[in-house]
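Why do we bother with holo predictions? Because pocket geometry can differ from the apo form. Keep that in mind while you read this record for 1,3-dihydroxyacetonephosphate.
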Amino acid sequence: MARPVRVVVLGSGSWGTTVAGLAARNTPTLLWSRRPETADEINTEHRNSRYLGDHVLPDNLRATSDILEAANEADVLAVGVPSHAVRDTLSQISNEVRAWVPVLSLSKGLEPGTRQRPTEIISECLPGHPVGLLAGPNIAREVADGLAAAAVVATQDEDVAAALQPLFASRVFRVYRNTDVLGCELGGVLKNIVAIASGMADGLGVGDNTRAMVLARGLAEMTRLGESMGANPRTFAGLTGIGDLIATCMSPASRNRRVGEAIARGLTVDEAVKELGQVAEGVKTAPTVMELARDYNVEMPIAAEVEAVVAGRRTPADAYRGLRKVQPGGEDEVA
Ligand SMILES: NC(=O)C1=CN([C@@H]2O[C@H](COP(=O)(O)OP(=O)(O)OC[C@H]3O[C@@H](n4cnc5c(N)ncnc54)[C@H](OP(=O)(O)O)[C@@H]3O)[C@@H](O)[C@H]2O)C=CC1
Ligand SMILES: O=C(CO)COP(=O)(O)O
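The structure, written out:
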């Protein structure tokens, strides 16, 4: 009898731990944590208290702080460290992962400097492996608590996606497929910046109409940039686009939204990130997205204001005043 597929998840933050918990319900799963004490807590108490509070993980989820052990065990590898750590993490195991092991990114950011998406970094660090991503409107704690949600496995190869779907799916976690890797990945990256704008709007005490405007025009910016880079614009109308945008802009648990709100309450960006104690990818991604917008000659007024705020050149109130000065054009054109 064939042995079951072994899933390895790298990164024991809120999302890596949650995805490992999903996989462990379907197949043997090992979670790598860079902190031995976190691996111990998961193995002995079945919790990751720093990131998921008192949430109880499946008994059969195993953890290790030995990254070589993790890499050697993988039949499927999921990379759940923040995007700025993907290259460094994978460079430690580039000779350890068996050929043809599919590698899925869970990260939603861009690498500063190279401007690369996590799947591009994975392809460089682990050449020849099938590469894809798992993304969608997935606030970690809600998924961990078993509240119904859906995600997308995006890979160019439909057969690989079809093999990966059941490893992460459950009765309440629906996993769809998509071959538009670029569009799905950009949706997850770009919505974080709009979520910071949405949080700033909340912190400034604006109404629901303003919030809806930020979401709708933010989606227009995301779609414009994505289409210019070669993504299918329809992808942005799906789970990884508008779906993730709504979840992240509306949820009080979203870290990007919370950072925006904290800045609008008067904290500096550094203070807001420190208060959060978790990753808010949009803070580091905003300048990189504006570089892409310039390269592809795409207007992104909301992202531009967010970038100016996180760089300390503008206050949230000035950013919103700035947005009011943008002359509205045809709705499907610019600004
Ligand atoms: N949380 C969510 O709801 C979702 C998050 N994501 C994405 O998943 C990715 C991870 O986010 P999330 O789990 O939430 O982040 P968290 O802030 O919850 O955790 C980050 C994890 O990455 C580890 N880490 C940080 N820096 C490094 C490094 N240089 N090398 C190795 N490990 C490192 C941390 O380790 P340590 O504890 O030791 O600092 C921690 O385990 C992000 O790209 C995020 O956008 C995607 C969907 C949902
Ligand atoms: O990507 C997420 C939900 O899909 C999580 O968003 P935050 O990183 O803003 O918490």
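The chain has a mean pLDDT of 96.
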